[in-house]
Amino acid sequence: RLYDTELSKYITLEDVRRLVRDGVDFVVRDSQTDEDLTRSILLQVIAEQEAGGEPIFTTPVLMQIIRFYGDAVQGLAADFLQRSLLAFGRQQQLFRRQLEDLVPKDAVGTVADLTQQNLALWRDMQN
Length: 127
Known about the structure:
By secondary structure, the chain is mainly α. It folds into two domains: 1-53, no CATH class; 57-127. It is 64% helix and 5% strand. The protein contains five helices and two strands; from the N terminus they run ββααααα. The chain has helices at residues 13-21, 38-51, 59-68, 74-102, 108-126, and strands at 2-4, 9-11.
């Protein structure tokens, strides 16, 4: 069970996902040992998202990631993935801002469609 000390209530993995999507920085700690559980909880959120819809990580991508563990290039792979995802995120933000300037505010459906197309392109690049 996860307890949000700021809200003084228990939260779900969906609540954690919402915090991440809203750009809230947080740390998850074990209340008894003070161990940092943030990565473990985030991996649970990813696993839940991957199981319930169209996954981002294809089976070949997951297999390749697993192959990197224990390999000499593990650190390089982690750095590459982090840099690539940060660049992709910045690109998406720029795209959204440019689109907001071109498209009327009530055209949310158009933005959602374009975002889905970009996500599909990114998935295709993984294969």
